[in-house]
Amino acid sequence: MTELAFQDQYADEYAHCYGCGRLNEDGMKLKSYWDGEETVCRFTADPKFSGGYPGFLYGGMIASLMDCHGAATAWAAKARTVQQEATRFVTASLKVDFRAPAPTNVELEVRGKINEIKGRKVVVDLTLSAAGKLCAEGSAVMVEIPINRQEG
Amino acid sequence: MTELAFQDQYADEYAHCYGCGRLNEDGMKLKSYWDGEETVCRFTADPKFSGGYPGFLYGGMIASLMDCHGAATAWAAKARTVQQEATRFVTASLKVDFRAPAPTNVELEVRGKINEIKGRKVVVDLTLSAAGKLCAEGSAVMVEIPINRQEG
To answer: Do A51 and B18 make contact, defined as CB atoms within 8 angstroms?
Structure first.
């Protein structure tokens, strides 16, 4: 099976994100998929992405993982609901509650659940776990870029 | 004048953060300082830290800048208030509202303002601007690591 990640279906012009863009050669190339009614993204962080203490991820990276996966989940939710191609979602608001340190060098699982879809807005609930232990949870308000957006 | 950044006063054991640790050779080495009653951190992002569109920062990086500067602000606020050395603050909760795209290759200014200090908890209000334009705002709840913390 060669299921395409959500991020690998973005138009080229939207695929440069350091977190999840397939065209960003320096980036992390996060990949998100459906898992039933939820979405999932798995990622193992290099030890260089340490927090203050070695062996644990810095907070900004945890926010990054939840942000990119949240945007991808919103994209997928919209595409499935309206049966037409979504453009790309950007973050209007992100809230992260940190529950436990997240280790580097261990596969992390970020899960998304659709809370609300309303016009161009999608609200996604998110968790980040390591080996089944909850490390962070939160939610993101994502907004779709209008189809005929003019670049300024 | 050779004012020491807050992060350059952390104990070695807490100085490995990818965002702001002086001992993380791969990291961004963010530096935060007092500016009157507020704190400030200036950073120019390499274009590789792009969002979906080239030329603008990915959301996770914006959260990272606010998170590291928030933790440093909490540390400095605590140290100044109690007149004793603070250990290190970790993030309990981070909220970011994204107001406008933040450019890469332009000096960004992250500012912190102390909202509340209560025991080990410090709440910091944060903004991120580029050339005077507000790009993001939010707040962080930071919690100090106990002094005699045992590593497990």
So the answer is: yes
Q: Which residues contact residue A114 at a Cβ distance below 8 angstroms, ignoring those fewer than 6 apart?
A: A37, A73, A74, A77, A122, A123, A124, A125
For residue B147, name the pLDDT band (cuts at 50, 70, 90).
confident
Rounded to an integer, what distance in angstroms lies between the CA atom of residue A21 and that of residue A15?
4
Q: Is B58 on the interface with A (CB under 8 A)?
A: yes
Q: Which of A139, A1, A152 is nearest to A74 (CA)?
A: A139
A59-82 and B59-82 helices cross at what angle (nearest 10)? 140
ipTM: 0.94
Residue B57: predicted pLDDT: 97
* Domain ranges (residues) in chain B: 34-144
CB contact under 8 A, B52 and A10: yes
- Contact list, A10 vs chain B (CB under 8 Å): 52
Residues 5-24 of B with CB under 8 A from A: 10, 13-19, 21, 24
Taken as a whole, chain B contains a residue count of: 152
- The pTM (predicted TM-score) of the whole model is 0.94
pLDDT in tens, B42-64: 999 999 999 999 999 999 999 99
Comparing alpha-carbon positions, the chain B residue that sits nearest to A93 is B97
Backbone torsions φ then ψ of B78, nearest 5 degrees: -65, -45
Cα separation, B24 vs A30, in Å, equals 23
Coil, helix or strand at residue A39: strand
- Can you give the pLDDT at residue B83? 65
Instruction: Choose among B10, B49, B90: nearest Cβ to A18.
Output: B49
Distance from the first to the final alpha carbon of chain B: 41
Q: Are the Cβ atoms of B58 and A91 closer than 8 angstroms?
A: no
B33/A contact by beta carbon, under 8 A: no
According to CATH, the superfamily of the domain at A34-144 is Hotdog Thioesterase (3.10.129.10)
